[in-house]
Write a structure and sequence with these properties.
Blueprint (H helix, E strand, L loop, with lengths): L2 E5 L1 H10 L8 E6 L6 E5 L5 E6 L4 H7 L7 H5 L13 E3 L1
Parallel strand pairs: 1-3
Antiparallel strand pairs: 1-2, 3-4, 4-5
Length: 94
């Protein structure tokens, strides 16, 4: 993985138990220097890797939108092509 995303407990449960996409509101930390389309590790608050996926945002963009609702992406970044940081179709739960 080119980097990692640490997610809160609610996001980790949604990914693992419900097969949800990863939204920016659930991200608490962004590590590494990845670009859109790169594979990243998704970790829970204990540091355990729970998934891997292809990101829709760069690390710099992800840092700006973490903890934000999807509706806020456009006001933060100036545009909104995606609601999800990682879409479920591009995510593998481990």
């Amino acid at each position: 993985p080119a980097g990692y995303l640490v997610v809160d407990d609610g996001a980790a449960r949604a990914l693992v138990e419900k097969g949800s996409s990863l939204l920016p509101v659930g991200i608490v930390e962004v590590g590494g220097d990845f670009r859109r389309g790169d594979a990243v590790s998704v970790r829970d608050l204990d540091g355990k890797e729970v998934a891997r996926g292809l990101v829709n945002f760069s690390a710099q963009e992800a840092r700006k939108i973490r903890r934000k609702k999807s509706a806020e992406i456009e006001s933060v970044l100036g545009s909104r092509q995606f609601d999800e940081v990682i879409h479920r179709d591009n995510l593998v739960v481990l």
